[in-house]
Amino acid sequence: MTTFVDQITLHLNAGNGGDGCVSVKREKFKPLGGPDGGPGGSGGDIVLVADPNTTTLLAYHRSPHRRSDNGGPGMGDYRGGTNGEELVLPVPLGTVVKTLEGEVLVDLTQAGDRFVAAEGGHGGLGNNGLANSKRKAPGFALLGTPGVERDLVLELKTVADVALVGYPSAGKSSLIAAMSAAKPKIADYPFTTLHPNLGVVDSGNTRYTIADVPGLIEGASEGRGLGLEFLRHVERCAALLHVLDCGTLEPGRDPISDLDIILGELEAYPVPEGQKPLTERPQLIALNKIDVPEARELAEFVKADLEARGYRVFLISAVSREGLTQLNYALGELVEESRAEVVAAIEASPRIVLRPKAVDRSGFQIRVEGGSYGNLYRVLGEKPWRWVQQTDFNNDEAVGYLADRLHKLGVEDGLFKAGAVAGSTVVIGTGDGVVFDWEPTMSSSAEIATPRGTDPRLDQLHRPTAKQRRADYLDRMDAKEEARQELRREGETGFWDVDAEIAEDAILADGTVDYDDEDGDFDDDHGVEVIQLRGESE
User: Fold this and answer.
1) Is 270 labelled a binding residue?
2) Is 289 annotated as contributing to ligand binding?
3) Where residue 520 falls among pLDDT bands split at 50, 70, 90?
4) What CATH class is the domain 7-156?
5) Which of 17, 38, 107, 158 is positioned for an S-S bond with 123, CB 3.0–4.6 A?
6) Would the keyword RNA-binding be found if you checked this record's keyword annotation (predicted)?
7) DSSP letters for 66-104
């Protein structure tokens, strides 16, 4: 049964965004109160968090498929959809996140480090959020965009200050158990340790961690044994401690030859760019098992040769704990020096400047691709692709809105410059994308019937103000008075035989005269003739 996993492939699918709502507010005495559709909720993100309480990737080895919650759809009465809950995945300190192609995305080395591995989809706006002074009643809403779906490789590299390297059964696990509170499995046969062990050691005012690399033998860098699989755990260590077995009974082995083989494997292991090679890091040598008389004699014999190579050599016994105090303080000094170098490098590193995106960036690019049936024009960019995902292509008004957005972004001008003509094939997005037969001016049946974003029912709700009603009343009274004055002037000149008092009844409210077409006379409300043409009547 697998108990330790340091590399897994994680399949992530973030939540989709909720669709916006199309709704018109209806209340008593307000049957058409305007658009009130709310936006959809955003899909939940999937976040990797470095957790010091998590020590292995075993949970993701057994369950590699992870999915976050979707966002809820928008609702009427301006109510927005619920946001999908964020999915937090704890990972051990020292987890490196990579793509399937091997590109390193992030290195989670500090407790609390967060990385958004997959972003949730955006919620679509409701028709209330799309309304403006020119688009008073949108008959559409934006769809929610799908969440990011991707595969990532998680690789665990143990975060330790000192790495213990050496042949199997050299006593590395026993040394960790003697110097710290770690309780690794210890037995008298090779390859007892099947995964790295960590221990925390106190050295005066310095606290550091040590880790052993199991199964390091000759040919480990080429895949023999378990060394190649676990050599990655040495990459982060500031110092190396070679644990050499002075009590081995295997023929052809001695501390000097063991050291040369281990150094050769460390030299052959490639480290990431920017890091020191393993053999160039500070190194100490511990000659172990001196509690055995023959081993002590051998250790004292080879100590001078090792010191002549420039190494600091310590004679120790993990069983009797002899020499561990001096070794502990020596390792603490190396760790302090390494930490000081790291701080100095950080202070000397150039300052990171975060600059906002340029306001004049177009946000898209057009790529011309040849094909069997002529050129294909591919529009690439985050905005155009997101807008296409948000469009309901069964709604003509929504398609027209997409055309307006692309035109304002400058896509049409870019297509013209790229050589596109009416009827050219345009693809938005990578891969299959969304294919259009491009027309320079996109219109829809909704635009022909009524302007996009308008509703004739809402136009009927226009009510004049009190000031407008008063002005209309005064205009009618002035027109009526002017008609009266005209009749009086004509009567005074003798052109009409007018009974002024009765003739006033023939003036309508709008200032016009009630004229009877049948007999050519002006009649009052009772049909009595009040005006006759002088000289022409019988």
Assistant:
1) no
2) yes
3) very low
4) mainly beta
5) 17
6) no
7) EEPPPPPPP-STTPPPPPPPPEEEEE-TTEEEE-TT--E
